[in-house]
Amino acid sequence: MLLHRYIDHTLLNPVATVDAIKNLCTEAKEHHFYAVCVNSYYIGLAKSELMHTDINIAAVVGFPLGAMDTKAKIYEAMQSIDQGADEIDMVLNIGLLKSGYHTIVEEEIRALKKSIGNHTLKVIFENCYLTDEEKKIACRLSINAGADFIKTSTGFGSGGATHNDVILMKKEAQDYIKIKVSGGIRDLQTAKQYIDLGASRIGTSSGVTIVTSA
């Protein structure tokens, strides 16, 4: 297992400085992580720091609440791609999902995917706020809309990833869509457990600790 290639090395802290983003990129190069994940403002900086590497840049969109207007999410996604992002991690509209407006949620995901073309789209559920049935519905909507990944959490909700959630998501996802696990993954054992459960990507700010433990 090439553990480092599962890692989206993440820094989304609201007080993250320019130097902290640079350090994130330096660590990503040292450990050859799959991607860095940053807020959209820092894409240009990450692009510059990661020049001449194969490390991807993931940008969060509609983060962390998911309650932005769809047009605003699309604009942020397209701007992120234009500035050098390879992947978009969007937060779905949690309130609309819970309101039963499933068609609107699916249409938003589809519109984001269409706006970024062949670039990777991950849909963040924020599972701590959803019932199991809502999680299943979110999986199906994401698959129907053509997303590439479903993702457990922003890391800013009241809870992060859980084994039960990933088992549920994997059952719904089958081979139609990949799973990114995030929220509370801070050690090697936890990361390996989620990979064994079917995760294709691990979003964490503890990537260095995880891979050096290995």
Compact description:
By secondary structure, this protein is an alpha/beta fold. 45% of the residues lie in helices and 18% in strands. The chain has helices at 18-31, 43-49, 70-83, 94-98, 102-116, 132-144, 163-173, 188-197, 207-213; strands at 7-11, 35-39, 56-61, 87-91, 120-124, 149-151, 178-182, 201-204.
Q: How would you portray this structure in words?
A:
This protein is an alpha/beta fold. It has a single domain (3-213), classed as Aldolase class I (TIM Barrel). The protein is built from nine helices and eight strands. It has helices at 18-31, 43-49, 70-83, 94-98, 102-116, 132-144, 163-173, 188-197, 207-213, and strands at 7-11, 35-39, 56-61, 87-91, 120-124, 149-151, 178-182, 201-204. Strands 1-2-3-4-5-6-7-8 form an eight-stranded parallel beta barrel, surrounded by six helices. The chain is globular and about 45 Å long.
Question: Can you give keywords for this protein?
Answer:
eight-stranded parallel β-barrel, alpha/beta, 8 strands, globular, 214 residues, single chain, TIM Barrel
Q: Give the count of helical stretches.
A: 9
Q: What's the helical proportion of residues? A: 40-55%
- Characterize the overall form: globular
Biggest sheet details = 8 strands, parallel, barrel
The ordered H/E elements are: EHEHEHEHHEHEHEHEH
Number of strands: 8
CATH fold name: TIM Barrel
Q: Helix and strand layout, with pairings?
A:
Elements: E1 7-11, H1 18-31, E2 35-39, H2 43-49, E3 56-61, H3 70-83, E4 87-91, H4 94-98, H5 102-116, E5 120-124, H6 132-144, E6 149-151, H7 163-173, E7 178-182, H8 188-197, E8 201-204, H9 207-213
Helix pairs in contact: 3-5, 5-6, 6-7
